[in-house]
Amino acid sequence: MPVFSRFLRYFIAVAQQGSIRKASDELNIAASAIDRQILQGEKLLGTQLFERLPTGLRLTTAGELLLSSGIRWTRDLRALTTQIDNLKGLRQGSADILIPDALTKGFLPAVLGRLRETHPGIVVNVHVRASRDMGQILVDGQADFALMFNPGHMRELFVRAHREIPLGFISQPDHPVGALETAPFSLCAEYPVVIPAPPLALWRPLELLEAETGIKIQAVARADNIQMIKSLVSEGVGIGILSYLDVYDEVQKNQLAFTPILNKKLSPLTLALCVDRSRQLSMAARLIISEIEQFFADQL
């Protein structure tokens, strides 16, 4: 079975997601096409790779062997591609990066835009994922590096750079809170607030802080989407609570104001640039990392 085949890519996605439907969403490929490739692969190999269960698909012993080998082949192929890219220098190349939803606007698109002007032959593949999933994706060799919030400890990962990102109130630029340099958490009781809801990471520390301080947040709305929180604040529904990076773009354009919350019990978020210790980075990936590290040093 060729390393470059669609079958192997589809098989690994189904094995990792546990269902053809989830793999279809991940790959943006029709479920019928994925199912067809899996069935053809099983026929060619002469063995079942999955057990078909009511709850989804489970790997057979043969499937587990193929998954292990497939991941290794994929990593070897990436390493080979990296070496070939390095031979080409910085004229061409590609890099796969993982980012959280909060970075889909703001500094990162600007950094990549400048890179496009100076190195038009470099292709950047951006994958938006939850920070909690990024470590394993890196270790599996599916990306060159990740920008993640509050990375957990994994011995395979190396943090090349990190910055603490403050949490604060967001408001319309002419709102009284927007004129403050910092603000106490108690303002939550004085103004209507749009509150982050699960699965957004901010909801938990806010819930704990409310319980510890006894300050009752005057909730006017709850949203589990960062853009919705910003939209509600922009429309004057209330002030919101987010991280600085969540509103970096709007603050730069004077569309929203950000006021850090002054409270020792409210820890800032940590934004970390992480790589797999064992991965050989391509020149393209190293160039992008260098640009991001420079931004960390100059702007954050």
UniProtKB/TrEMBL annotation:
Family: Belongs to the LysR transcriptional regulatory family.
PROSITE patterns: HTH_LYSR (PS50931)
HTH lysR-type domain location: 8-60
UniProt name for this protein: LysR family transcriptional regulator
Keyword Cell inner membrane on entry: no
InterPro entries named in the record: HTH-type_LysR_regulators (IPR050950), LysR_HTH_N (IPR000847), LysR_subst-bd (IPR005119), WH-like_DNA-bd_sf (IPR036388), WH_DNA-bd_sf (IPR036390)
Alphabetical keyword list: DNA-binding, Transcription, Transcription regulation
Keyword Nucleotide-binding: no
One GO MF term: DNA binding
Gene source species: Acetobacter malorum
GO cellular component, one term: cytosol
